[in-house]
Design goal:
The complex is a heterodimer of chains A (about 250) and B (about 250). Chain A is about 40% helix and about 30% strand. Chain A has about 250 residues and is an alpha/beta fold. In chain A, strand 2 and strand 3 form a beta hairpin. In chain A, helix 2 crosses helix 8 and helix 2 (about 55-65) packs antiparallel against helix 9. Chain B has 11 helices and no strands. Chain B is globular, with a radius of gyration of 21 Å. Classes of the chains: A alpha/beta (about 250), B mainly alpha (about 250). The interface between A and B is medium-sized, with 23 and 22 residues.
Amino acid sequence: MHIRKSLFIAAFSAAGLALAAVGAQAQDLSIKIATEGAYPPFNQTAPSGELTGFDVDIANALCEEMKAKCEIVAQDWDGIIPGLVASKYDAIIASMSITEERKQTVDFTERYYSNYLRLVAKKGSDINGLDSLSGKTVGAQRATVAAQWAEDNLGRNATVKLYDTQTAAYSDLEAGRLDALASDVYPAFDWLKDKPDYEFVGERIEINDLIGIAVRKGEDDLREKFNAALTTIRENGVYARINEKYFPFDIY
Amino acid sequence: MAIGQSYREIKIWLSDSACIGLSPVSPELFARSCPRFIDGFFISIELLVLASLFGFVIAIGLAVARTSNVGALSVPAFVYCYVFRGTPLLVQLWIFYFGFGSFGAEGLGPFWLVFRDGYWVGLVVLTINTSAYAAEIFRGGIVNVPHGQIEAALAIGMGWWTKLRRIMLPQALQISWPAYSNEIILLLKGSALVSTITVLDLMGQTRTVFSRSYNLEIFLYAILLYLVLSGSLTIILRILEARLRTPTQMSRQH
């Protein structure tokens, strides 16, 4: 009886172990991540349709760190939060600023980089800072902190035009429809590399803008996993290596 | 300029009074952005009214040209309708705004005054688009005017212009009006696409307001405002339809 019982226990625990192993296998995290695909150099769609950029590299590094199977999909900016809420994907890694308004709808991880704004204008134009914008036309991408800042701070004296994508705003700056563009600094820095006729004007515009990963409200488990992975890639140099690929200075 | 100034003042006054008037019944979210919605509402109305008026005149000309026996008139009119009816409005808007616009002030010369501003580009493209559709509708009306009417007109010695003005067009319009009314409603809905070329029409304002709150309720208000617009439009078009019918009915009584 005694032996039988211990045999039974042994068999049971062996089965338990096997089950636990299967369980661990099944727990292999599978995450669908959305990015915009139109915000170079952070996220962009290559001619082949492949998504590339800083956000995408960070997403892949985090997934590797979390040992998760990740799929990255492109989603238009306007619908990117509604899509997350509707569970079309589980996280947004698309250079999204952590704002109070967005926090009403989604939760954010800690920052993975931080941002400030700059004005971009044609070289030799009469725009040299915030005071010279009166009566001018200033562009920004709709649904960004730059747009919000422009509307709140320039709306009274200047005309603010909003674009669906940053790319559209650049093309209107070049077409001469805009006198200046209010933009996040890094994508503009990247764009200016190939545009010798344009430059940053005025001082940097500090807006206390931290960029985080958005997850559905209450998904604390996933959020903490992202946070842990972020800390690790900051420490082990993976982040720095990705950063270096795009900018000659630390953007964290 | 003076007219433009007073029109702007009227708009501001209407917008203020509408928002104050609605405030007892409007939810907080709507009340906060009410002036934006009403501004957008006016822009949508302006684009619709102007595009349909200009479009109507062009469409009549095109329809007459399409039914003409002269190839130099009918072929270009056919090509125009074929191109602008056969391509998506969105593509047309983007080609005109981003495509032609990229030539800038130097490339476009005086046309830059139009191409500079999304509002005017939107108006031009909506006018072109609706005229191509409406021309087809009116062409259908013209070819369906009873043959006896034309023979009678010729028999009493009417010239081409008199025949067109007094016999053909009134009857063609009467025949094609229900289909044309439909086209105007489609134009209203199509006009929402101008929000993609920086115009802050009703849709543009809605998207801007939405981009701040991410509250889907916002689109509900846009729907209600669009329904108010299309409802009023339907009523106006019905009244015109009834008035178009009168002359022929009177002539029957004679």
